[in-house]
Structures are given as structure tokens and as C-alpha cells.
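Please produce the structure of this protein holding flavin mononucleotide.
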Amino acid sequence: MKTIYPADLAHRERHQFLLSGVAPRPIALVSSMDSQGNHNLSPFSFFNAYSSKPPILAIGPAIAAKTGKAKDTWLNILETGECVVNTVSYAMVESMNLASCEYEKGVDEFEKSGLSKVPSVLVAPPRVQESAYQMECKLMQNIELRRDLGGNGNIMLLEVVCFHVADSVLVDGKVDPRRMDLVARMGYDYYCRADVNSIFEVQKPRWNGIGVDALPHHIRESTVLTGNDLAKLAGVQVLPMLDGSFPRFDREFRADSVEIELANNDPEAALYVLLALQRTHDRAQLQRIAKAFLALDKIEEAWQTLLLEG
Ligand SMILES: Cc1cc2nc3c(=O)[nH]c(=O)nc-3n(C[C@H](O)[C@H](O)[C@H](O)COP(=O)(O)O)c2cc1C
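Below is the modeled complex.
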């Protein structure tokens, strides 16, 4: 493992190194307006939400380290106290990228990027029509970061005064992330896409799990079960005991190969074969079957399979 101190890195290197570790970051496509009424649109990935009561976001428009030039977005929001944060879907990623070009102040990046304006309700800057989720914001506070040390960062705390969401991304009144198809920024020129292939669910713990430290030693030391597998097993409320009625097969099997059944994602059939072969002393096979149950979120079955060892 390499140990790195920020002061030992050149600015550019430190910037990319930091961004590689704080990733993926959501992207705020921020529309703002100066006091003359010129519109501006720029992306910021120093962006997140920090409060929901009231809803408060933060963006970090920096002073350019090379030129010392302040971002127009920053100047506009300081001047007028308003902006709109628009989310960025995969369908808009190239337009968003174009809007990040360093155009002169007063140049309208809506025009440059080809993205369309829709009037806002409570603030003057327009929203981005192509964005499925938009937040009208008022500036709450601007924090300049370590100017005493030559720092170039800023944090703008923005209070959301109005949300807009496309009907197409709502399913049963909830935002469906698969329909949002958001993109996020990583280090260097890398992005990632939160689409149907990469989104998954992890249920919130419903109680305090027993913890990995409470698992039997031979399970904790398993070379088959991963850290994620152990954490799933350790999420139970109490250490399970063998249930004499396990397994209760309520279907017929014509199986005779643990390998084939596991490859086919059918731990129940694999367990049937192991029992038929009277091989419950085979700890590694039991753990592989338990692992397959865990992959299907069948925690109780995984535990009972491990407890069959004997
Ligand atoms: C995906 C993406 C994320 C960005 N995030 C930031 C950021 O968090 N802070 C920043 O100062 N610049 C960021 N930039 C660069 C600005 O978008 C760029 O400097 C832009 O031209 C600023 O425009 P403005 O001067 O019109 O506000 C980002 C660029 C891209 C493409």
C-alpha cells in the first residue's frame, strides 16, 4: 500500500488522485443567470445533498488553478442568489460535456450544447428540459476554502425551493433509478452509468445483526465464503440452530451433480444431490451451496445448509 501526503503531489496530480478516490460522483448540470439576464450552463461533480429538512445541496465551483479565473456559475450565483441543478442522464452526457467548455462570460451554453430551456417557477434561471429531475435552488451560503493557504475551492450551499420530476421516471409515485439512467464522474476522463445492468438493491438492516465476530470460527475462516457472504450470515438476529425438518424439498429432483446444479444457480438441487450422496461431511461443498443460497438472499437456507455438517 502506498502512503501519499497531499503536499507531495503537484496540483494536477493531487486533483486527479482525489477524484479517483471520491467516485462515482453525481453531476449537477447547473443553470444560472447574471444580472444582465445572460444564461449559463455548466456541470459540477463536486456535488451532493447534505440535508433533507430543508433540502440542501452543495456544489464546488473552483477558481481555475492555472488562470485564477472564477467560474461564471460561481459569479452568477453570488450575484443573483439563484440557480437550477439539473441531473444528467446517459442520453445527455455528450451535451453536458460540451457545456463544460470554457466559453467567455456571457456565452449561453444552452445554445452551445443544444440543450433546451424551460422556464422555472420560483427562480429566474431556466431548467434543462432534457433532464428528468430538476431542482430550483436559492443560495444559502458560500464558503471559500483555505484562501489563506492559496486554496482555490468553494462550497456553495443551495437550498432547494422546488423539485420537478418527469412522469416517465416515476413508478408508483417513486423515482425509478433504472429510468433515470444517471451518469456519474470518476477520476480522469472516466464516467459510469447507473442503468438497469448496474443498479442493485441492498435491504437496510432490520435489526442489529449478531456480527461477523459472533460467527463460528470455521465459518469465519472459510476460503469459500467471501466478506459479503459472512456479513449476510452475520445479519441474523440470533445465531441459528439446526432445524431438524430442513431441508423440506417440495419438488422432485432428477439431479446427480452438485457442480451442474450450482452452475445452474439451483442450490436446493445441489443440496439434494449432496444429501443423496451422503456427503454432509464435505464442509467445502456445504459452504459452496450455502454461498449459492446467499446469492439468492436465502439466508435461512444458507445457515441451515452450513449447520448440516456432520
Ligand atoms: C463532469 C464534469 C464535472 C465537473 N465538475 C466541476 C466541479 O465540481 N468544479 C469545477 O470547478 N469545475 C468542474 N468542471 C469543470 C466546469 O464544468 C468547467 O470549468 C465549466 O466551463 C465552468 O463553466 P462556467 O465558467 O461557465 O461556470 C466539471 C466538468 C465536467 C465535464
